[in-house]
Amino acid sequence: MAGPEIKAPAFREFPTIPALQPGSMAGSQAYVASEKIQEAIGFQGKLDDDWQVTHDKAIAKMGDLLGKYRGLKVFMDSCVHCGACTDKCHYFIGTADPKNMPVARQELMRSVYRRYFTLPGKLFPSLVGAKDLTREVLDDWYTYYWQCSECRRCSVFCPYGIDTAEVTMAGRAILDTVGYGQKYSNEIIGKVHKIGNNLGLPGPALENTLEGLEEDVKDATGVDVKYPLDVHGAEVLLVTPSADFFAEPHIESLIGYGKVFHAAGISWTLSSKASEAGNFGMFIGNYDQLRKIALRIREAALELGVKRIVVGECGHAWRAAYAFWNTLTGIGAGANDPFAIELQKQLDPNYKQPSHICEVTWDLIQQGRLKFDKSANDDRIITFHDSCNVARASRMGDYAGGQFDIPRNIIKAVANNYVEMESSTIRETTFCCGGGGGVLTDELIDLRIKGALPRMEALKHVADHDGVNFMATICAICKAQFTKVLPYYGFNMRLVGGVHQLVSTAIKLGDEQ
């Protein structure tokens, strides 16, 4: 029997706070990982039959996280329920479910924390809002911690700087520990460990895909642009989201990367061992998984002897690279094990390690090493969507805010028509696409559509008033999410694309230069 028809919420005339609809998203739940998926990546397969055992394991894991991560304990203690974050979450705006208010989603864990880790909660639980961990509470954790994209917009507006994403990550880490993991994220992590990318695309299939890409670009441009795989001694190792290898519009950006390297005369390669930039270990709040996935990149860089590591257009991949690679794997600096030291000696210190592809392209533009025909993009009136993890959890360039300016500078260098969306919806206060943080799965499509509402409203404004017909972004998840949800809001799914898709359209190759 078909389920209820899923519709996008109506556009609002003014960005008002929605009327509360308690429990409206209680039935929207991600599929639970099977025992096989859980155990394949080292987690308990399922919940224990004895609730007390599950309860004790969950509380023990919470205690472990509180002891390891000082910030988590600070976040548990410092919220004053001021409500500044309430209407900043795209999921609350779109669903009106009060448990999707960031403060309320945090409270699911904070109330349990007070019960077991504070003296007032142990002695007078009802007076301080402390709650026992029950199966019903754990179910709420699973439902609502998987209705958070870890975008951190609420944290920008929190007067105490509480990082709600860290609370979500802790909740998910506890759930995994007791055997209550999410199918989508944990299955993907298993594919990365086994094959090297989120899609489970084996080396021969990847090689065939790249060969076909070379033929397509040759037919389109008459130039032999190479998309190399496992080339020893190349200068650059490109690590990009696996969606770039097959999906539209993602592959158009991969074509653009290759054209940039070709035009600049930079030797580069992809790696079949580490063909995935994405790192879902961050989504599930498990730093061991995050490190294990990132180590594949270190191993590939060492084996191939590259001098530079460059990350493609993927928001959370860039956050993982920028914020975690150095300390977890020694890519650039940080770790001090022998292989990390060996890699640090191998990589060229004249370049940021790692670098974002936008940093590489913008540097080449400033050096005059790339030439463009901007009129090739004249059929496009372009706006730019800042992806959450780039905007609020990383940087580019040599100054604060470079992550905002550099992609826009590239767009303006390759196209004549650019329009900004409303100022409160871009840069540091950008709205999430609605599909990040591990919720890009079909069973959560209702959540994803509703969560996209604020971004769709800002897009509609510039589409109606300025004729915008192309929204560029530098995140694979944003591209996949928007491609899916744009039609629900009356837009063409091809309205979204990558920054390097625009670069690819305008760049001059070969004799054209």
Automatic annotation (TrEMBL):
This is Fe-S oxidoreductase. It comes from the Bacteria. GO terms for molecular function: 4 iron, 4 sulfur cluster binding; metal ion binding; oxidoreductase activity. It comes from Sulfurisoma sediminicola. InterPro entries: 4Fe4S_Fe-S-bd, 4Fe4S_Fe_S_CS, Cys_rich_dom, Helical_ferredxn. Keywords: 4Fe-4S, Electron transport, Iron, Iron-sulfur, Metal-binding, Transport. Residues 70-99 form the 4Fe-4S ferredoxin-type domain. Pfam families: CCG, Fer4_8. The lineage of its organism: Bacteria, Pseudomonadati, Pseudomonadota, Betaproteobacteria, Nitrosomonadales. PROSITE patterns: 4FE4S_FER_1, 4FE4S_FER_2. NCBIfam families: DsrK. The keyword Transport applies.
